[in-house]
Structure formats: C-alpha cells, structure tokens
Amino acid sequence: MFHIATESEIKKGKTSDVYFSRAIAALKSAKLDKHIKAEIRTNSLPLEWQWAVLAGIEEAAHFLEGLKISVSSMEEGTIFEAMTPVLLIEGSYLEFAVAETPLLGFLCQASGIATKAARCRKAAGGRQIISFGARRMHPAIAPMIERSAFIGGCDGVAGIKSAELIGEVPVGTMPHSLVLLTGDVTEAFKLLDRTAPSEVKRVAIIDTFADEKFEAIRIARAAGKKLFAVRLDTPISRRGDMKQILGEVRWELDLRGFSNVKLFVSGGIDEDEIERLNPLVDAYGIGTALSNAPTINFSLDIVEIEGEPVSKRGKESGAKEVLRCESCHKTIIIPMGREKTKCRCGGRYYYLLKSLIKNGEVVSKLPSARKIREHVMKQLEKVVSRE
Ligand code: PCP
C-alpha cells in the first residue's frame, strides 16, 4: 500500500544499492571472499557542526543480528567528531557486503536528527523543547525521527506511536482545527478541558482568529488557574516581529495577574530563533528543523584484509581504537592493539568502541531511549562545552 520496504525486505538487503549484489556475484564467481575489518566514520559534519550525536545503533544492532560477524561501536548517544570511527565490523566480506546501504541509512539520518535536537537543547537552555515534526516526513519513519529527537534532547514527542516506542507519554497542545470547529478558543478550551486526561497540561492556541494579545487575555480570564500555557504558532503572513508579539502577550498577561501562564511557541523554530526568543518563551514545539535535519554522511570503508592493514585513498588503514579522556574529554584515535592509558592532562583514557555483536549475537545491553538521552545530556555539559 505505502511506498516503503518491509522489515524482512530490509533484512534481506532488498533496499541495498544493486552494485553490492553485482560485486557479490562477481566475487562468488571467482570464489573470492576475504576476512575483513571495516569502519564507519564521517569525514565531515554538516554546516558548521563541530560535533554530532550518534543515533541508530539499536536498529543497526537488530539489523545485523544473526550475521556471522562481530561488531564494536560507540554507545548510542555518544558525542563524536568527524574522522572518528563510530563502528567497526569484522567478518567475511560476502557475509555483510549487502548490508552496507541499510546499515548506513540507520545511522546517517537518526544521528543528524539527534544532533539537531542536541543543538536545540543547548540553545533552549532549561526551556522545554517538544518534537512536533512527525508530520514533516514519511509516516513510516515518524517513530524513528521522534526517538532520535528525544535521545538528542527533546523533552517530549507529539506522535502517539513515537511516544509508545520510547516509553513516554505523548505531548500535545491544541490544533487550530478545534478552535475553527467550535468557533472560539474559549469554547475549544472548555471541550478539551472536559475530555483530555487530567494530567495533560492545558494549553490554548491563541492565533486563530484574532490578535494574540487579545486572545491571550480572553482565554486567561475564561480558563483561570486551569490554563497552563498559551501557544503562538503565528502564521508567516502575520508574524512580523515575533519577539515583540511575545513581549506584548507577556506584558498583558502579567499586568492582569496571569504571570503563571507560560508562553509556548511553534512554527519555523530553529536554533537561532530559540536564542532570539529565549527571554520570553517557556517552551518550543520544533518540527521541520528536527525532521529535516541534515544527515551525517557516514561511510563504511575496509581498513584491513586478512589481517593486513589496507584502505582506499582518503582513509587511514588498519583497525583503530577511539579513546576519550575522563578529565578533559579529549578524544584520540590509535591503532587497535596499541595501549594508551594516560592523557596529557593526567586523566585516564577510556575506550569508546565497545562490543555490540559477537559472532552474530547482540552482546550489549541496549539502553532505553531515556537512558541514552541522559547519556547525551551528561556529555553536552562536559564534552561539548569545552568548545
Ligand atoms: C504547525 C503545527 C506543527 C508546527 C507548526 C511545526 O502549525 O503546530 O506542529 O512547525 P515547523 O515544522 O515549522 O516547526 P499548523 O500547521 O498551523 O498546525 P496546527 O494547527 O495543527 O498546530
């Protein structure tokens, strides 16, 4: 019905680039198979990004499970830089050659979204950021998109299936359609208040028919203490100076004793807009900026064949270890098998590439989305802030 691949088609390599199947047939015809090591890394990050968040490892693990290979990888949520291996595969080339396309696909898009979420997280400081982007991309991948946004730092996701996947409660406010059908935001609020679960925060959208500041006063007076926040999703045709509009709404609400009513903004929100609106905003709904985040263009490259280091031009040959210092959080890359315990700063190194799959069996305890998010938050304070 939909233009998507099934899980078994992906597992069987049906979404892979055909040249892999042709190369496999060619190698098989010459009974040519080799035991290799291959690494995944990106040579560059998008835009001005200096770091990125690795995401997609859980799906990659389930995808590779059962193949006669061994894999080590950074834990999902690890912050990495360009030119740094994030995953290493070992096994017969013919065993996993066709897996290259989907394997990279699992990591490229999810890592881009998680990184964008982490950048928005940093920009928003302690303010809430909610993923509102499920509608911007193909529905089949909405759960992956919002899981990636969550582990990167979003406080919640709006999609029902997305929330189910990560074991969280979906977060939503009020669509314009409810105000249009009931004819007025106070009516819409009354109906929603009567039917939504009691734990759902009551948020009214105030940009449907009239000017935001007058709608804000009206709904605050009508809803009283029940009103948690007002949402501004002001259309571009009316947006003008959003900061000024927010300032007026804040002023009018405070003047009338509604300083407890928070301001929630959505529509075209990205890092720069967050920084600009922060003095007035309590929470953001971010859609396109997250769903349409740049992908991280990882590649998978052979670095060893039958124990001999070898790689194409532009890549360093030989399997590698990636070490991070516990104190200064600096990362270094050394040839596999070499030892390095102490950082120049005196701190101890720890290994970032950890065993994920051993002879086809997933050996790592794949953490929950919330645990991965905590891992990202901790690094954002330490690893990234040294920038
Ligand atoms: C949109 C809806 C999305 C927001 C904007 C994300 O408003 O609220 O979640 O926008 P972004 O992709 O630019 O970040 P509408 O399309 O007006 O939808 P609704 O009336 O349902 O809020």
TrEMBL record:
It is an enzyme of class 6 (ligase). Residues 113-301 form the Quinolinate phosphoribosyl transferase C-terminal domain. Its EC number is 6.3.4.21. GO terms for biological process: NAD+ biosynthetic process. GO terms for molecular function: nicotinate phosphoribosyltransferase activity; nicotinate-nucleotide diphosphorylase (carboxylating) activity. InterPro entries: Aldolase_TIM, NAPRTase-like, NAPRTase_arc-type, Nic_PRibTrfase-Fam, Nicotinate_pribotase-like_C, Quinolinate_PRibosylTase_N_sf, Quinolinate_PRibosylTrfase_C, Quinolinate_PRibosylTrfase_N. Keywords: Glycosyltransferase, Ligase, Phosphoprotein, Pyridine nucleotide biosynthesis, Transferase. CDD domains: NAPRTase_B. Residues 17-111 form the Quinolinate phosphoribosyl transferase N-terminal domain. Pathway: Cofactor biosynthesis; NAD(+) biosynthesis; nicotinate D-ribonucleotide from nicotinate: step 1/1. It catalyses: 5-phospho-alpha-D-ribose 1-diphosphate + nicotinate + ATP + H2O = nicotinate beta-D-ribonucleotide + ADP + phosphate + diphosphate. This is nicotinate phosphoribosyltransferase. It comes from candidate division NPL-UPA2 bacterium Unc8.
